[in-house]
């Protein structure tokens, strides 16, 4: 008779043990699955996620995690299946739409992405969450609707939306938009330490348009009075696109004036990297009485409202290799075109037309500037700078520069 109570106790214990094993904590499984998936162990992570979904098939965060894991592997159809379930389970869950739009954009399925975006607008009402509006701008960008994409991005930036790389993205859109413009600049340079040198006056006029082949195309004429002489430099710049994350800069120009190069040309390739970094590398050719070859490259970073860039120029010659460097920083205000800038440099950039190229290296300079778009069509800007140029050992010349400019867009 004593065996019966013992057996009964064992049976009850076994039942409770089985029930305990059937109890699943979906939150704990989500944490474990996320750790595995973020570590690149997609199959193991999804195995845990599927266990949770057997008991909780409408758990939105788990559905999103599974969908994103498939998207990261490039299995976009499988990703869409789970992300569709996430939206059905939680029609007003922002993360579900964000993941779904990412997956469809990455796979180039823009038609379906537009459908998902329409559903989001219907479920969220008139105003989408800022993150989804940014996704809408990116979708328009991939469909080459650059004006509409820029309008949304600019509104988000003005409203204080924080997204890493949004300034760089806006600069890319500005380059791609079909904006025609004309502009003019004036530079005044005065000198001390060289009594024989009168002030320089330099004017520049340019026109900008855009073609499918060249990207932005800029024709520029620069005229200057220097060294009791007058000269004109003619230039053409182009910025052809090399893909969604890369573009080129091409320049050619020439002059008969002694203080401008007889012939100049150059090329650079720019790459927009992840985490709001950008990098470029290129070459400049300047022919005066002798030829100057310049290898140039820079590394830049968008950080909040700041853009920072460090450029290095290397000039090989028969007398040895020399170098110059320029650090630039901009702080952007309400829009992506209103900014304050500061520049610190040693040497002279080969892209500065108002400087004396004979002082290419032994020059030290600080420059401050401000630019503002005062209407959708009209922009003004101004810079002032001070440089100390070493003409020879122990012989220095001080240079004060004031630069003013304006641009009209149409």
Give the gist of this structure.
By secondary structure, the protein is α+β, with helices and mostly antiparallel strands. It has helices spanning 3-22, 26-38, 42-55, 60-72, 76-89, 94-106, 110-124, 130-142, 146-158, 166-176; strands spanning 181-192, 200-211, 215-226, 229-239, 246-255, 263-272, 277-287, 291-303, 306-315, 322-332, 339-346, 363-373, 378-392, 395-409.
Question: What do you see in this structure?
Answer:
The chain has 410 residues and is an alpha+beta fold. The chain folds into two domains: 3-165, Tetratricopeptide repeat domain (Serine Threonine Protein Phosphatase 5, Tetratricopeptide repeat, Alpha Horseshoe), CATH 1.25.40; 178-409, monomeric porin ompg (Porin). The protein has ten helices and 14 strands. A 14-stranded antiparallel beta barrel has the order 1-2-3-4-5-6-7-8-9-10-11-12-13-14. A hairpin with a 7-residue loop joins strand 1 (181-192) and strand 2. Helix 5 (76-89) runs antiparallel to helix 6 and helix 6 runs parallel beside helix 8.
Keywords:
alpha+beta; 14-stranded antiparallel β-barrel; 410 residues; single chain; Porin; elongated; 39% strand; Serine Threonine Protein Phosphatase 5, Tetratricopeptide repeat
Rg over alpha carbons: 30 Å
| Helix-residue proportion | 25-40%
Specify the biggest β-sheet: 14 strands, antiparallel, barrel
And the CATH topology of the largest domain? Porin
Low-confidence stretches: none
Provide the structure class.
alpha+beta
Q: What is the ordering of alpha helices and beta strands?
A: HHHHHHHHHHEEEEEEEEEEEEEE
Q: How many domains in all?
A: 2
**Shape field:** elongated
State which percent range the strand residues make up.
35-45%
- Give the N-to-C terminal Cα separation: 101 Å
Going across the biggest sheet, name each strand in turn.
1-2-3-4-5-6-7-8-9-10-11-12-13-14
Counted beta strands: 14
CATH superfamily of the largest domain, by name, is monomeric porin ompg
Count of DSSP-assigned helices: 10
> What's the mean pLDDT score?
88
By CATH, the architecture of the largest domain is named Beta Barrel
User: In CATH, what is the class of the largest domain?
Assistant: Mainly Beta
């Amino acid at each position: 008779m004593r065996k019966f109570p013992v057996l009964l106790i064992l049976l009850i214990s076994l039942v409770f043990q089985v029930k305990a094993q059937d109890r699943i904590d979906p939150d704990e499984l989500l944490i474990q699955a996320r750790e595995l998936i973020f570590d690149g162990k997609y199959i193991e992570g999804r195995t845990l996620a599927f266990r949770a979904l057997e008991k909780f098939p409408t758990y939105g965060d788990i559905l999103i995690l599974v969908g994103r894991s498939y998207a990261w592997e490039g299995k976009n159809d499988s990703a869409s299946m789970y992300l569709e379930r996430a939206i059905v389970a939680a029609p007003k869950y922002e993360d579900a739409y964000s993941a779904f739009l990412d997956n469809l954009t990455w796979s180039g399925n823009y038609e379906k992405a537009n459908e998902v975006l329409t559903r989001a607008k219907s479920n969220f009402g008139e105003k989408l969450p800022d993150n989804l509006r940014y996704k809408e701008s990116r979708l328009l960008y991939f469909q080459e609707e650059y004006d509409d994409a820029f309008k949304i991005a600019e509104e988000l930036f003005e409203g204080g939306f924080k997204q890493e790389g949004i300034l760089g993205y806006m600069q890319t859109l500005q380059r791609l938009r079909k904006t025609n413009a004309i502009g003019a600049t004036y530079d005044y340079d005065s000198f001390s330490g060289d009594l024989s040198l009168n002030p320089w006056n330099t004017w520049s006029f340019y026109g900008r348009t855009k073609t499918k082949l060249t990207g932005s195309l800029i024709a520029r004429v620069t005229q200057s009075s220097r060294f009791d002489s007058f000269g004109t430099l003619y230039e053409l710049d182009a910025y052809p696109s090399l893909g969604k994350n890369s573009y080129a800069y091409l320049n050619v120009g020439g002059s008969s004036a002694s203080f401008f190069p007889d012939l100049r040309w150059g090329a650079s390739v720019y790459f927009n990297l992840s985490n709001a970094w950008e990098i470029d590398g290129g070459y400049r050719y300047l022919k005066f009485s002798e030829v100057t070859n310049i290898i140039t490259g820079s590394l830049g970073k968008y950080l909040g409202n700041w853009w920072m860039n460090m450029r290095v120029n290397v000039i090989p010659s028969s007398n040895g290799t020399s170098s110059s460097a320029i650090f630039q920083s901009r702080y952007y205000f309400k829009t992506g075109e209103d900014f304050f800038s500061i520049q610190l440099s040693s040497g002279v950039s080969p892209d500065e037309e108002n400087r004396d190229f004979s002082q290419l290296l032994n020059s030290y300079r600080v420059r401050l500037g401000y630019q503002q778009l005062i209407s959708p069509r009209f922009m003004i800007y101004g810079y002032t700078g001070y440089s100390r140029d070493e003409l020879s050992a122990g012989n220095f010349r001080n240079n004060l520069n004031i630069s003013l400019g304006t641009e009209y867009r149409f």
